[in-house]
Amino acid sequence: MNDLELLIRKCSEEEAENIRRNNSLDSSQVKYQVNGITYSSDCSKWVSSKIDFINQYSPKGVKPENYSCAVLLHVVPGTIEALRIYRDSDDKSMRVRRGPRGSFGIPPALCDWFNNRIIKTQTIQVTNNVLTEFTNNPSPELLMNEKNEYATFMAFSPKFLDKRHFTSLINRDRMSWIKTSILWTLWRSEWGYRPGQERIIELDVSKEYLDSLFSSAASHQKSDMPSIIYQTDPDRRIIGARWIRREEPYFVKAGHTTHFGIRREALHNYIDRISQGNIKDITEKMQDIYHTRPLHPRQEILNMLNLVPVNYDEKV
To answer: How far is C-alpha 92 from the chain's CA centre?
Structure first.
């Protein structure tokens, strides 16, 4: 189950039992009363990957004091990205509602599709209307190639790159940053058009090397002059429909990504051993995506680079 994605729905005890028993969300109408009048609603089923949204969630027809349960939904990998795509669907009945970052309002017409992606459910209790037993701090999402290597990215001046090798001009004294998110890299380098970041490279590394970065960075965080550090930043995603319409900004914040700052012996090791013969200049490929503006750019990028998203299974 470790490779499954995790979503959560806060609900009444009765609904939690129904979800657990049927292993699915109920897409039927919800009835609720306001000032003694009964209303019916084909309301969306809100799920989220963020605990903050769940604690603020107030569904129709359920009094706050009855939010006694939360259901953890273990779903097929790729479900969250598919929900993001459905938010821009041309079919209004199939369009996922927009909410705070990490939340999705699933319409009744899409419930059957979503339910077929649920592998396992778990019910946990809510105390004082606050979900305290669950913290959704998933392991970082990384990109993996067909050799089970992890893709890392850098953007820098062309003078530092000679085909598949770094040149002697690269400064070995300053800290260099290894990025694990291609979208964050593209956002930061402006698709390779930002001065000083005109070349975008991919360098696939082994799990052992990535493990060493995480473990060394964690142990060095409190050092005055660490050779390896890590930093988390808000990751980026592209809203394809907004991008095609040329509305700004098409890059929006989504989740978090981890970067590694390396210097001294760690940078020497990266340049002289890890990168040797492994550098891929992907600038032109990424700029082709930029100019063609596909509706689903993230998937186009992953297909072009032959990469798949995976959750890194080590704790930072």
So the answer is: 25
